[in-house]
């Protein structure tokens, strides 16, 4: 399935603050159905904060999050998962004392059971042959890369329509990074949308449909990978040169 112009997620004027410290300023973005949207920017620019706010894991100072036409701005994290959004956090977040299969089952806790859950666990293992042979092994015995793959597989067991994926390349071998990004690209064939944060700029841009570029806790540019690559904005941000945020909401949507 090719991506469409149908909007899966719309974020409007999203701001987040910890006390008086503003860590995200009036971010506007959209994710198309079946599309891969990439958030790029230096560390501390606000990318992970955006994912956490969408998932309801941190409070919003202001702004709106709309998923498939429904306002989820004030929804609980559980309600957001139940609505069809799965969030895979950075850093191999698995339960090391549980088996690979039990970790996968927890990915749909409270959402699926019985035959449906078994089928989703089997499907996740099909998608990730790197861990399929370790079904009964404790997750703590896996390598860092395998644990990251398990975390992503766990995020897919609930059969989400939107996957929030934060830094899947952290701490894993380059070959596995390529495998993971190739899998992310393939997910669109099932109609899934992906909102991706990744620091391996070129690899991530190779799989993305749309890129939002962050600097100073806000969006300073948006376009296809080709458009942003030609503009020079990516290089300016990563070289530490100041980039002025666009004025007006319609300019960074």
Strand order of the largest sheet: 6-7-8-3-9-10
Q: What is the CATH C-level name? A: Alpha Beta
What is the chain-wise order of helices and strands?
Answer: EEEHEEHEHHHHEHEHEEHH
Largest sheet: number of strands, sense, barrel closure: 6 strands, mixed
* β-strand number: 10
CATH superfamily: P-loop containing nucleotide triphosphate hydrolases
Second rung of CATH, namely the architecture: 3-Layer(aba) Sandwich
State the low-pLDDT regions, or none: 248-253
Radius of gyration: 18 Å
Q: Which range best describes the helical content: under 10%, 10-25%, 25-40%, 40-55%, 55-70% or over 70%?
A: 25-40%
Label the overall shape. globular
Q: Per DSSP, what share of the residues sits in E-state strands of 2 or more residues? A: 15-25%
Kindly name the structural category. alpha/beta
DSSP helical segment count: 10
- In CATH, the topology is named Rossmann fold
Number of domains: 1
Topology diagram in text:
Blueprint: E1 7-18, E2 21-32, E3 36-40, H1 47-54, E4 62-67, E5 70-71, H2 77-83, E6 85-88, H3 100-106, H4 114-127, H5 129-132, H6 144-157, E7 162-166, H7 174-186, E8 193-197, H8 201-207, E9 210-215, E10 218-223, H9 225-231, H10 233-238
Helix pairs in contact: 3-6, 4-6
């Amino acid at each position: 399935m090719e991506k469409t112009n149908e909007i899966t997620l719309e974020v409007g004027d999203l701001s987040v603050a910890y006390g008086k410290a503003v860590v995200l300023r009036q971010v506007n973005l959209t994710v198309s159905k079946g599309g891969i949207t990439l958030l790029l920017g230096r560390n501390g620019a606000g990318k992970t904060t955006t994912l956490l706010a969408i998932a309801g894991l941190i409070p919003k100072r202001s702004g709106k999050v709309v998923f498939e036409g429904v306002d989820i701005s004030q929804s609980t994290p559980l309600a957001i998962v139940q609505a069809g959004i799965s969030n895979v956090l950075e850093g191999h977040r698995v339960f090391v004392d549980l088996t690979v299969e039990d970790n996968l089952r927890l990915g749909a806790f409270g959402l699926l059971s019985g035959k449906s859950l078994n089928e989703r666990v089997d499907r996740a293992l099909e998608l990730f042959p790197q861990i399929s042979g370790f079904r009964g092994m404790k997750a703590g015995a896996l390598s860092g890369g395998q644990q990251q793959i398990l975390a992503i597989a766990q995020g897919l067991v609930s059969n989400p329509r939107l996957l929030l994926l934060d830094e899947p390349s952290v701490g894993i071998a380059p070959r596995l990074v390529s495998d993971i990004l190739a899998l992310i690209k393939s997910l669109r064939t099932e109609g899934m949308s992906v909102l991706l944060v990744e620091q391996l700029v070129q690899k991530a841009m190779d799989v993305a449909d749309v890129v939002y570029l962050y600097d100073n806790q806000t969006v300073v540019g948006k376009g296809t990978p080709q458009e942003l690559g030609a503009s020079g904005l990516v290089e300016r941000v990563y070289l530490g040169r100041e980039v002025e945020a666009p004025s007006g909401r319609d300019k960074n949507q």
